[in-house]
Amino acid sequence: MLYLGLTGVSALALWVAGMTxxxxxxxxxxxxxxxxxxxxxxxLAHWPQPAIHWVSVVVMIVGSLPxxxxxATLRGNKSALLKDHQVRGFIGFLVITWLLFGTWLCxxxxxxxWEAFRIVAVNVTSVVTTxxxxxxxxxxxxxxxxxLFFYLTFVGGCSGSTAGGLKIFRFQVASSLLMGSLKQxxxxxxxxxxxxxxxxxxxxxxxxLLTFSFFFTITIGxxxxxxxxxxxxxxxxxxxxxTAVCNVGPGLGTIIGPAGxxxxxxxxxxxxxxxxxxxxxxxxxxxLVLLTPVFWRY
Length: 298
Prior knowledge:
single chain; mainly alpha; two-stranded antiparallel ribbon; 1% strand
């Protein structure tokens, strides 16, 4: 009911902002599921209205926050979302990226600051939340933009949302472990408790984070190597593997970039990317467990 309610409210907001009812319903479903499909080949660039762009940003963020906290808020805990370290970190990361990147784009283009900020907000939010829609071809902004969007491909939304990627909480836990390790090096005899969201980080969590990150990286590297073996250029191979495993949508380059699509890729590449998408959505370790002979003995 919550999922349907969010989709309905989002569709209404997009309709009021300027979309037709058909377009609004389709994009609401795409935003809340962070799925990425649009009714236009030009994606969000088909609609010039800034109101549609800002509503899209908000709805993409809504789909990338933990749904359990929405339930908690409806049950009376009105500060559930605001108190969560993951949510605050996710929103803070987006806002800081918008401001810095938007200012850079304003300086290096003919856009006004507010126009650059809006375009950057839509594209950055889409990639970070793994929604995959686009407002123009950001690969034309220069090598800095291309590399930044490649990095943003890996971030993902919050745990408990519809978004893919590594998820923001893994970066936060890794940062906490890193700071704790640095303090331990400075004060070897000190007892330093590593915490995340008010809870101690035990060895199981650290081990799980390391294991997942390792296999996540190996999976992307292996798929990229396979795509290169099929004959794709390194930009298409690497960004294609990353966007498939992270479930983002567009890659980089002229073929699978935000202005292109995957239709011209060889069938073998499509099958390999399909495997990558499944592994990424199931978070890899689940699939590895299914492939372990010990699992089937019990």
